[in-house]
Amino acid sequence: MADARRKAIDSGTANPRVVLVPTMGALHDGHLALVDRAAELGDIVVVSIFVNPLQFGPKEDLTSYPRTLDDDVARLAERGVKLVFAPTAAEMYPDGQTSVTVSAGDIGTRYEGRTRPGHFDGVLTVVAKLFHIIDPDAAVFGEKDGQQLFLVKRMASDLSFAVEVHGVETVRAEDGLALSSRNVYLDDVERRSARVLSRALEAAASAADRGVDAVIAAAQSVIMGEPRVQLDYLAVVDPATFLPVSGNHHGTAITLIAARVGTTRLIDNSRFFIN
Ligand code: PAF
């Protein structure tokens, strides 16, 4: 990074702001929205592309995760990105898996963390390494991975990283499905069924004036209407703590949803307001 900073200074930008967009590649329009936000936030955008083995469980899709590096780099170049950091696993973890890791704490064991034990420790460990390697002033993450965004913000604060962490609104297909690199696993029938996640979130938000139990019931009944979709979890959380809201919660809340469509696990979330 020192080189990039030096070049920016040579080309006239004093104190250039470096903004990192961490990704695992297989880029889609949701990632490009992160890149656009990064370009607004700083002078130098760095996109990292690394499928991080530490955040995959033993039965998860590490080997089959889509890898499209050449296409990704071409899309980023078209978007004006000049710096892509795409290390190998051996470069990131020269001694194999690290023996020292970042713990995501209690929130890291809930929702996604309950189904994917150790996932968030793996995410935070690689993000901490990327923050050290790239040394950005800011970093941009998608709101679709809401729990991840919350935990990265908490890590930056708890471990005193001098990195501003920004979230970017989820980008959706026309029918509401949140864009995700894992959507490529869906066949046509599953792709149609997958719309039920965003429909459940809409139903949840429309039930907001009837309280938290009604919000959960509304989302559940939409999911149950689609037999190809198996609900993993549904939770309504307080954005300030990521703990489940109480029955008399007032203010902003986030509905989190995870479900399996065939063999593909998808997650989504949306914010709404309880009066
Ligand atoms: O959201 C992702 O793509 C990954 O979890 C991240 C943040 C790049 C860490 O590997």
Written account of the structure:
The protein has helices spanning 2-10, 29-41, 69-78, 89-92, 112-115, 119-134, 146-158, 188-193, 195-206, 212-224, and strands at 18-23, 44-49, 83-85, 138-142, 164-168, 229-237, 251-261, 264-274. It has two domains: 2-168, 3-Layer(aba) Sandwich (Rossmann fold); 181-274, 2-Layer Sandwich (Pantoate--beta-alanine Ligase, Chain: A,domain 2). Helices cover 36% and strands 20% of the residues. The chain contains ten helices and eight strands. It is globular. It starts with a helix and ends with a strand. Strands 3-2-1-4-5 form a five-stranded parallel beta sheet, sandwiched between helices. It is of the alpha/beta class. The model has no long low-confidence stretch (mean pLDDT 95). The protein binds pantoate.
How many beta-strand elements?
Answer: 8
Uncertain residue segments:
none
In N-to-C order, the SSE pattern is HEHEHEHHHEHEHHHEEE
* CATH class category name of the largest domain: Alpha Beta
CATH architecture call of the largest domain: 3-Layer(aba) Sandwich
Q: Could you tell me how far the N terminus lies from the C terminus, measured between alpha carbons in angstroms?
A: 47 Å
Average of the residue pLDDT scores:
95
What is the name of the CATH superfamily of the largest domain? HUPs
CATH topology of the largest domain: Rossmann fold
Shape: globular
**Largest sheet report:** 5 strands, parallel
Q: Please estimate the helix content.
A: 25-40%
Number of helices: 10
